[in-house]
Please model this.
Amino acid sequence: MSRRGRLLLLLLSLPLLALAAAQLVGALLPHEHRVASRAVYAQPPDSVWTAVSDFARLPSWRPDVKRTERLADRDGHPVWLEVGINGEVPYEVLTFEPPRVLVVRTADPGLPFRGRWRYRVEPDPGGCALEITEWGEIRGGMYRFLARFAFGYHSKVDGVLRTLGTRFGEMTVPQHVPPGAE
Model:
C-alpha cells in the first residue's frame, strides 16, 4: 500500500477509533449520578408550584416538551407521558405535596436513561426558590460518555430552571448545590 493510501486509511479510521474510545471511557464511568441545582424567582411560591406541577401545561413553557398525555395510574400514582426532543417518556408522580414538594420518576424501565427528580419550592426574600434534585441512571456507555463530557449531568435540571425563568420573564442563573438526602 502506498504512503498516501496508508494516510487515507488512517484518516478514515480515526472517527471509528474515537467512537470506540468514547464507548470504552463511558463503560468505565459510574451508572448512577446525583445532582441538584437551585434558582430564585421574583414570583410567589404558588406560581412556581403551579408551573412545575401542571403537567398538562408543560408544553406552554418548556420547548423540549411538545405535548403531554395523562396515562393510567400506576400503583395509585398519576402517570404522564411527555413527548418531545427525548422521544416519549412516561413519568410517574411519587410525591405531590402542594405547594412545596413534587417527586417524579421515569415509568419505563426500558429507557436508556432512568431517573427521579425532586422539585422543592421554598419561600425566599422577594419571591421563592426552586431546587431540583436529579437521581439519574444511564445505561449505555456512549450515553454516559456524552452526559459526562458533552452535556454535563446538570444539563436537564439547569435547562428546566432557566426555561422557567424565561416563562416568568426573568433571567435565571441556576446555582449548583449539594444534593440533599432522599
Summary: The mean pLDDT is 89. The longest helix spans residues 3-28.
